[in-house]
Amino acid sequence: MSDRQKVVRSGLLALLCAGWLLGLGSQVYTRQQTGYMDVFPPQILLGVLLCLGAGAAVRIADRTRRTWRRGSLAGIAMLGSMIGGYLLLTVLMWNPIWSEGEGETWFSFLVEAWFWIGVPLAVGAGFGALGWLTADRLMGGPATRPPQAPGGRQPIS
Fold first, then answer.
1. Which of 2, 17, 70, 76 has a Cα at 20 to 30 A from 122?
2. How far apart are CA 145 and CA 79, in angstroms?
3. Rounded to an integer, what distance in angstroms lies between the CA atom of residue 119 and that of residue 15?
4. pTM of the complete model
5. How far apart are CA 33 and CA 40, in angstroms?
6. Cα–Cα–Cα angle for 96, 102, 103, nearest 5°?
């Protein structure tokens, strides 16, 4: 691995960590300003960019070229870390008013669980795979190489 690749890999991982911490900080700020744990569109966009970056980081860090599925798993893992951080933050900054009155029940959450679990998983997987494919193309993956005939010979033009 060249020095340039090491710098790119380290820089991308540092950007992912900084983005994750930026999301955490913006969520704490939102909680302090509104009193609720709302997620706003800029935070969602940051999450999408982090999933893209996770997929790209897997492609750049993995010396042996595998498949886009690894990027998909990286996107899911990044999304899982964001959800885990959000849940931990919710526990630490719980607002007793959320427990009072009417609102979400366990049954209504169960009815909607496919949406609240399935959609984020699909988004994380899709953008992780897209990040992997983009990094693969930028690194000169098969999408940018000329087609080869069986046996590794160039086709006759």
1. 17
2. 32
3. 25
4. 0.77
5. 13
6. 85
